[in-house]
Write a structure and sequence with these properties.
Helix content: over 70%
CATH superfamily: ABC transporter involved in vitamin B12 uptake, BtuC
Radius of gyration: 21 Å
Low-confidence stretches: none
CATH architecture: Orthogonal Bundle
Distance between the termini: 59 Å
Oligomer: single chain
Order of helices and strands: HHHHHHHHHHHHHH
Length: about 290
């Protein structure tokens, strides 16, 4: 594996991309889980698929477009979908959760139409659906690096505001925070990360990388900041281990990464339960000895 890493450029691209995604997805996933908006990743991922399918449709009639990575158009559709979700949330003030299934359904429908017009599924489209180590290019690495820098800077600048808004939205509004603007900024960041993640994990599995490491981290974290650290650590281990197994066993990269993340979640749940049981037994022994 080490020898192949230095020999093949695509393995280097996949690893660098995976490390960036292993950081970005769990970090935003923490906010999504706390805000109970985990399903928004599914909605935006399907909108991204629509953008990818539309690019392939355009490339069918214009060969020059085929030379450009579909990530750019996928990014445009994803950000547009994020803006549309935020607009729907304002329209349905009492039923904000409706925004997600509306965009999800519309994205799937439009995507299927574009795919049928583009002569159905192709190898490239399957790579975007399920992720591919071989398909990662230097263009993808550059775009994902830019997204990583932008999202990291925005999270650093607006961490306190997003933290406050995630736990107590009403008090945040009373305190004078620009709630709608912050929601819009956050949802656009989610759209950027989803676009970045789909090259390795795949469109259909990207939401898993934003929720599974967070779910595992919640078993151990005792504070909000610890949840970030543990989620990123679990995310990075999932991505790197998944890429190694995918290369060695010739499996799908996205599916393997998700399976590793599921395994780490199950181990975390079992380990936490075991520690709790041991702690209870030790406490009972101390109580008995005192009596």
């Amino acid at each position: 594996m080490i020898e192949a890493f230095f020999r093949f450029d695509f393995l280097q691209y996949a690893l660098f991309t995976g490390l960036m995604i292993g950081f970005l997805a769990p970090v935003l996933g923490v906010f999504l889980v706390v805000k109970r908006m985990s399903l928004i990743a599914d909605a935006l991922s399907h909108i991204t698929l629509t953008g990818i399918a539309f690019h392939m449709l355009l490339a069918r009639y214009n060969p020059t477009i085929a030379a450009v990575t579909p990530l750019y158009l996928g990014l445009a559709f994803s950000v547009s979908g994020a803006l549309f979700i935020e607009w729907l949330r304002r329209m349905y003030t009492s039923f904000k959760e409706l925004a997600i299934p509306i965009v999800l359904s519309g994205g799937i429908g439009l995507g299927v139409v574009f795919i049928s017009l583009a002569d159905g599924f192709t190898t490239d489209l399957f790579n975007y659906l399920f992720g591919s180590v071989v398909a990662v290019t230097i263009q993808d690495v550059r775009l994902i690096a830019i997204i990583t820098i932008v999202v990291t800077v925005l999270l650093t600048l607006f961490y306190k505001e997003l933290f406050y808004l995630s736990f107590d939205e009403e008090h945040a509004a009373v305190a004078g925070l620009p709630r709608q603007w912050l929601h819009l900024l956050f949802i656009v960041m989610v759209a950027l990360v989803i676009t970045a993640s789909m090259r390795i994990v795949g469109i259909l599995l990207v939401s898993a990388l934003m929720s599974l490491p967070v779910a595992a981290a919640m078993q151990w974290a005792k504070s909000f900041k610890q949840m970030f650290v543990y989620a990123v650590l679990i995310g990075e281990v999932s991505v790197v281990t998944g890429l190694i197994f995918a290369f060695q066993l010739d499996w799908s990269a996205g599916g393997t990464i998700v399976l590793v993340a599921v395994g780490l979640l199950l181990l975390s749940m079992a380990g936490r339960r075991l520690l709790t049981k041991v702690a209870v037994q030790m406490n009972n022994r101390r109580t008995t000895s005192v009596e």
